[in-house]
Amino acid sequence: MPARANEHRSPVPRHPHARLLAAGAFALAAVLAAGAWWWCTIPASLQAAPGEELHAVGAARDGSASEAPGAAGMNAGGASAGCPPGPDGNLPAYPYAGEGYARVEETGFVSTAARPLSTFSADVDTASYANLRRMVRDGAWPADIPAGAVRTEELLNYFDYRYAPPEGDDLFGISAEMADCPWNPDTKLLVMGFATAPAEPAPETGSNLVFLVDVSGSMADPDKLPLLQEAFATLVQGLGENDRVSLVTYSGEERVVLEGASGADRQRILRAVGSLRAEGSTNGEAGLRTAYDVAERNFVEGGANRIVMASDGDLNVGMTSEDELHDFVDERRGQGVYLSVLGFGTENYQDAKMEVLADHGDGSYHYIDCAEEARRVLGRNLLANFTPLADDVKLQVEFNPVQVKGYRLIGYENRALADEDFLDDTADAGEVGAGHAFTVAYEVVPVDSPFEVAVPHLKYGRSDGDAAGAGDAEAGASGGDGGGGLAICTDGSEWLTCSVRYRPAGEDVTQSQARVVGRADQTDEPSSDWRLAAAVAECAMVLRHSPHAGTATLQSARDLVDAAGSEECAEFARLLETLALRSREPAASSYADGGRLNR
């Protein structure tokens, strides 16, 4: 620390200039010595990090990297900007202590003999990947990343895959590919893709979009309200004269800034958004009530009616808990108005609250960490994110015990449903937009695998894990329609049947379709899509410290990715390279273990 001038002065200094020069020289020497000591504490690999490690993911593409190259990039040497000093001025504070993430218990292996059905809700959210990218860009080590921030299904769904489109009257095209699991030699990895037809604009009906914007004091940071205001320039380009746009703000009070404006009146919309300023407390409850009222007043029959909430989730007035938010949204949904959520910011970001709002508001959840992500969500994928296609989309996979000893659903932990909910049309499930696709992955244990799957003792049923004999085949199978207990199938070509049940948007009648997965879907040379999904799963397991990670590492995940596949793949490859580099550093312990001294 630089020396301060002595507050007690000699009344008659004999050589003031000499004393000042000596004091200055001493202070300079102290600073140089401290700087040299600090530099020596940095590992050599970080002092000489290659140019590729300084790439600013996300920020580089929106031009912000040039303003703060050391802080914005995914680099190991310049990561301290995102980690302010602790209260004692020495060790850096844990940067995510003020952020809120829900604890999620990872799903383990399930015995097919005990439970052949796996039932869950569809999910098209992508927030977790963009949030992870933000953390890595700001300098997080793998051990720093909160496990609750890593939701595997949202990482999987961030990327575009070459899935087969739907055929005939089907709403979903279902692709399946199974190959040897990269992290466990005794299991298979099954990747299934569910794709819808590309979205088409509907100018004859238009949309009713109500933007609910948090303008409380916590939104003043550059990566919050200012980033949202910049993003609107992209959004308005996709709107037309039949679209209605409203703007509701909330802080200490709620305010209707704009109501029912034509989407073609772009300048009026942008002026209204540009006038917003952040100040005050955060009364999300009042804002939500007003937004629903505005949406219902401007309801468009046959069109897309949606509230889009933009916030950091730091609600501190009115409803503040996840349970209260859940109950409120449950009460207001069902009238044809969807609620989607855009998350912004860092340090005090409340992910758990934002996810609850989107999940129970029948909408999607995205995190905006840079201008490029805003263009992706509000520009390129505008129709898919805001135009509903199917409601209450549920999946049920029935495994054939003749071929499968056990299985493990990778991700979707907070989307699990009871098996009986599959046929219950009153049970709430996920919404899928026009042009959306989502990915599901299972780790599958073949019946002849040495891998052991615990089988609970069943007093009245079979608990030995053996499949029923061929003579029992007359009992039939449930046909993948979600009901009726253990299917008896001796056909070795069938491993499982995946059923999808949904209600087309705006309709009351439920529809379903099914896809059998078997021998024909196995391959020794998996596609680049399969390899990307496997890499995402490996990355998530490592960051979540999964007990099922096997041989998975961040480097082995990187080796699976074809960086030339797309811009998103190249970015993910750089993210994995950065995390792998940081995980190899000897001083890369967690903040809880004593801070990041090598920063």
From TrEMBL:
The segment(s) forming the VWFA domain are 208-386
Transmembrane domains' residue ranges: 20-39
Q: Where is this region: Disordered?
A: 60-79
- Residues folding into a coiled coil are none
Which InterPro entries does this UniProt record tie to the protein? CLCR (IPR051266), Uncharacterised_YfbK_N (IPR022156), VWF_A (IPR002035), vWFA_dom_sf (IPR036465), YfbK_C (IPR021908)
User: Gene3D superfamilies annotated for this entry?
Assistant: von Willebrand factor, type A domain (3.40.50.410)
Protein name (database record): DUF3520 domain-containing protein
Q: Which organism is it from?
A: Gordonibacter urolithinfaciens
Q: From which lineage does this chain's organism come?
A: Bacteria, Bacillati, Actinomycetota, Coriobacteriia, Eggerthellales
